[in-house]
Predict the structure.
Amino acid sequence: MTELAVRALTVVRDGATLVDDASFRFRTGELVALLGPNGAGKTTLLRAALGLVPPAGGTATLAGDDTQRLSPRKRARQASYLPQLRPLAWPSPVRDVVALGRFSHGAALGRLGDADRRAVAGALESCGLAALADRATDTLSGGELARVHFARAFAAEAPLLIADEPVAALDPRHQHRVMELVRSFVDKGGGALVVLHDIGIAARFADRLLWMRGGRVVADGTPAETLSAERLAEVYGVRASVEGLRVQIEGSL
Amino acid sequence: MTRLLTPGLLLASALALFAACLLGSTPLEASRVVAALAGGADAGDRIVVWSIRLPRALAAFCVGAALGLSGAALQGLLRNPLAEPGVLGVSATASMTATFALYYGLVAMNPWVLPVAAISGAILATALIALAAVRTTSVVTLILIGVGLASFAGAMMSLLMNLAPNPFSLSDMVNWMLGSVANRSFDDLLFSAPFLAGGCAILFASRRGLSALTLGDEAAGGIGLDLRRQRVLVVLGAGLATGGAVSLAGAIGFVGIIAPHIVRPWVDHDPARSLLPSAILAGLILVVADIGVRLMPTANELKLGVVAALVGAPAFVWIAMHRRTVVD
């Protein structure tokens, strides 16, 4: 079992407290959705938890190691991180982008070892990209590109996956397609922490919801425990009706 | 096809270097050049080949290779096909310190003053950028610092030229700013060799990280790249290689943009795999351009840097206008 444990993490930048005393744990075998309005500090929390930005207080450990002191390479072996999608610098072939997931294993493009080749082929297959392997990435649709990024995360064979708004710009079918990929990664023994804005999708796919507002983690529990009309009003400032896991947002407050 | 790229470029470069020994104001036959290269032939032929044509052609090749390699590496680091040593202000600062040495007549004291001045300028610019690279995570900031350095260096050079005490030192400075490999000797080559070799070795050592940067800074960090170390390595390597190149030939622009641009489609747009072929192609381009400069029937020999800019600047504009992906 691999666990990311965040204890009382606080991040301050230019005098503004972006993350305020946040604590949570997340481990292999669970799919956790991180929810909260824009500016709630979700991305900063993920970055600080991974040791990419220095915290003003608190600690984060990944598989027992303090992430502030972890080398980038060791960190990448434990957790794949998919930041919010950005365009790629070059029109590289899909296979090369996926192979970059093997970077932390020492792989160099064009000279992959057997284990790297197998991991890349497996990741392409599981994301339904085998037929697109030789296509240039600048010819792909947004949905296909999102799958390429997940394939590169899976190719890393790290036990944990942390993805920041991976389905934000996708059509409903691709949103479900990507979340199904994440779900099957978790069902095969991985752990995933995913920032989502679609509460319905979060409730449908996640084992646990982590709610953030104003830099604080305000609730942490299963969808059944934490999803309510009051919670949506408190966190997002919206009027909504909730029936079981079905959410109908009726307007802003 | 891709596998033949590097051997093909090497073969073409060897042929171009040989051709550079054949051609000139007194054309030599191939058999005489071969004999002179092997140490035979008559003394006159040996001097023409070993003291004039070969060192000049090798200097053009080394300068091109260093600039092509630096350009390819900087493009990978900055994720921008228009980056080159000029963008970071390294060439300009190196030229500026060389111009200083010329202005104050320091060059007359010792023949090594000029190369040392150029290299110290390049290292000064490199150190400034390396310092900034440790403090910032933004590539745009690095580019802007480079623009600032280049503008300052340009202003300083104009000032020195305004104040030039006599037409002779003015013409020296102009020669340096325009860039040329005329009259280079093996001694000149040997002096810049450690900087060229050291810079190129550092750039090659950083190549895997350049592939990773295709994903963008944040994602590259996510897959295990140490961003700061990567930036320091590339800036240092490019600084040393460019300083060595400027010390040998003055400021020669654009070859560091064009060679990687031609190479990239052949290597699946992977910055790491573009390094070696870009270096060889850029060296080849300058050797061929220098042969052209020597053969052109003009009263005064054209400067290599001028020819490079005449061809390179329009190509630069063309590449800029046809960019597909825009990042940052």
Chain B touches chain A through 31 residues (CB under 8 Å).
